[in-house]
Design a protein that fits this description.
By secondary structure, the chain is of the alpha+beta class. It has helices at 2-9, 53-71, 113-124, 144-156, 162-176, 218-230, 234-246, 260-279, 283-298, 303-314; strands at 16-23, 27-34, 37-44, 79-80, 89-91, 94-100, 186-188, 197-199, 205-207, 214-216. The chain has two domains: 2-100, Phosphorylase Kinase, domain 1; 113-314, Aminoglycoside 3'-phosphotransferase, Chain: A, domain 2 (Alpha-Beta Complex). Helix content is 45%, strand content 15%. The longest helix has 20 residues, at 260-279. It is globular.
């Protein structure tokens, strides 16, 4: 496939794939080296025929947003169009995207918070306006009916996390009371967990994986970043937000509802992992899902955490 990708994206001759760089839930990224340079090739696990028109359009729009961010000075890979001018190509029935290669360090939620704040501000200064509503993944609750159904299914399957999940449901529902509609103020990354905001070998920071980018609110995305990279201490919150403000970031976290993006995503991810455990067809898949569920139930984001972060932000 290396030669086909190189030809389709005009990457130069002597194409040779190297080791798998990263594997996610939806696909994998491989490094491709040609005479012209080094590139990142993202292969989706889904077939191209399974994508509907909306998903193809989303892939093109997210790539265009990433190009705008890269060209606007945000450290991130730059998507490359194929010879037809499209960012998503079908090669051998597989959806393929290509980007410039960047070296990044392992995911680290203890990354220098000042680096994080400055980088997110630079991202938010790339203002791509939108009038479209955000995706429900970023705004909607899982809901009482679904949580209780998951607990019942987990108990029935003898899941080792069933009791802990059942105990958590009242607190999860209390968190979902904070969910309010999110206005699509501008395009945002919407997936700024430590997996996608990485340190670099040169001592900087870089944003990767814009696949979920779309309409959002910089304030709610800033709240997500505060949770992910600074919830361990007031000093980290102060450092991150001060750097964000100094770099001209437009977001201001002042209300519990500003953590709505964080809550909605954590809950949907938790639901996804529980379903992954229940539906797993092999031990490897079940172990991977179990690790995701354990992270969700062992370190949940609850009302006292919101109140503590707001106190630190106010100070």
């Amino acid at each position: 496939m290396a030669a086909q990708v190189s030809d389709r994206f005009d990457l130069g001759h002597d194409a040779r794939p190297e080791v798998e760089a990263a594997r996610g839930e939806q696909g994998q990224v491989r490094r491709l080296v040609t005479a012209a340079g080094t590139f990142a090739v993202k292969e989706s696990f889904a077939s191209f025929d399974s994508l509907d028109d909306a998903e193809v359009r989303q892939a093109e729009l997210s790539a265009e947003f990433q190009v705008a961010c890269h060209d606007g000075g945000v450290p991130c890979p730059r998507p490359l169009p194929d010879v037809r001018g499209r960012y998503l190509a079908e090669i051998g029935g597989t959806p393929i995207r290509v980007q410039t290669w960047v070296d990044v360090r392992d995911a680290d939620p203890m990354l220098d918070p000042a680096l994080v704040g400055d980088l997110v501000a630079r991202l938010h200064r790339v203002h791509v306006p939108t009038t479209e509503p955000p995706h429900p993944w970023h705004t909607d609750p899982v809901g009482s009916k679904e949580w209780r159904a998951l607990v019942k299914a987990a108990n029935g399957a003898g899941a080792p996390f069933a009791a802990r999940l059942a105990d958590l449901v009242p607190e999860l529902l209390a968190m979902e009371e904070l969910l309010t509609p999110m206005a699509g103020v501008q395009w945002c990354h919407l997936d700024l967990w430590a997996d996608n905001l990485r340190g670099t070998p040169a001592g900087g920071a870089c944003i990767v994986d814009f696949d979920n980018a779309g309409p959002g609110d910089p304030t709610r995305e800033l709240a997500m970043v505060v949770f992910e990279f600074a919830r361990t201490s007031e000093d980290r919150v102060r450092s991150l937000v001060s750097a964000y403000d100094a770099a001209g970031g437009p977001g201001r976290v002042t209300r519990a509802e500003d953590f709505g993006l964080t809550i909605a995503q954590l809950h949907h991810i938790g639901r996804y992992q529980v379903l992954g455990w229940l539906d797993a067809r092999d031990p490897e898949a079940r172990a991977r899902a179990h690790a995701g569920v354990a992270e969700f139930v062992d370190d949940p984001f609850l009302r006292p955490d919101v109140e503590r972060l707001l106190d630190w932000l106010e100070s």
